[in-house]
Amino acid sequence: MPVQLTSQAYCKMLLHAAKYPHSAVNGLLVAERTKDKKRDGHHDPVLCVDCVPLFHGTLALAPMLEVALSLIDTWCKENKYIIAAYYQANERTKDSRPNQVAEKVAARVSENFSDAAIIMVDSSRLKMSCSEPIVIIYDHHENKWKSRDVTYDCFEDWNEAQKITSALLEGRSYENLIDFDNHLDDLRNDWTNPVINKSVLDLC
To answer: Which whole-number Å values give the CA distances from 175 to 7, 53, 88, 182, 193, in the listed order?
Structure first.
C-alpha cells in the first residue's frame, strides 16, 4: 500500500529540514491505525497524518534513538497511531538517496508495519514557494528499497500542502519546530509540536 501525506506531515518534514539546512535531519511519520486490511485486493493508501522530528546532525546515536522510539510508541498507542514511515534529509544537499542509517531505522519500522516507506527530502530543492513536491518515496520490494515517482496523488491535498508549507516557511515557523534533540536538551520542549500543529490547522 503506498503512503500518502497530509499537509501537516509534509509541512513538518520540510520545516525540520529548513531549521537545520547544513545538517542531516530525520524523523518518523505516523498513520491512523486501521482495524484490518481490505480483502478484495484493493488497498487504500496509508495516510500519514503527522510527523515526529527526531534528530539533526548525528543521526546514528542508537541509545537516543531507542529512548525516542519508546516514547513515540507509547504516544502512538495513546492516539491509535502506528509508525508508518521514516524520513531523512541528508547533509550533502545533492545526495537524496537513503543511506545505511535510513535503511536500518526503516527496517525497525517494518517490523511492526510491513508496508513501511522511506521518504527522502531533497533539500537542494527546498524553496519558500514549495511549488513542487521535494520528496522521494522509497518502497520495499524484493528485499530492496526502490524509489517511485512522486505525483500529487501522494498527497491528501497537494494544493493545501503547498500553500501551508510555503506560508509557514515564509513566516519562519521552523524556528519553533522541536525535534527529539531539542527535547532531550530541555524536557519542557514538546516534540509533538502543538504550536506548529495549530498553525497548520489555522491555515487549512
So the answer is: 19, 13, 19, 12, 12
Residue 118: closest CA among 142, 91, 95, 96: 96
CA dihedral for 107, 108, 111, 112, sign (positive or negative): negative
- Specify the pLDDT at position 75: 96
In the chain, at which residue ranges do the beta strands (DSSP E only) sit?
3-5, 25-32, 46-56, 81-89, 117-121, 135-141, 144-148
Which residue, among 116, 113, 117, 134, has the nearest Cα to 125 in the 3D structure? 134
Q: Which residues touch 9 (CB under 8 Å, ≥6 apart)?
A: 29, 48, 49, 50, 51
- The counts of H helices and E strands in the chain are 6, 7
- Which residues, given as ranges, of the chain have pLDDT below 70? 1, 35-43
Contact 204, 160 (CB under 8 A): yes
| Global confidence as pTM | 0.92
Q: Are 160 and 4 in contact (CB under 8 A)?
A: no
Q: What is the pLDDT of residues 175-192, one digit of tens each?
A: 999 999 999 999 999 999
3-state secondary structure of 204: coil
Rounded to 5 degrees, what angle do the CA atoms 157, 159, 43 make? 20
Query: What's the confidence (pLDDT) of residue 165?
Result: 96
Are residues 123 and 15 in contact, defined by beta-carbon separation less than 8 angstroms? no
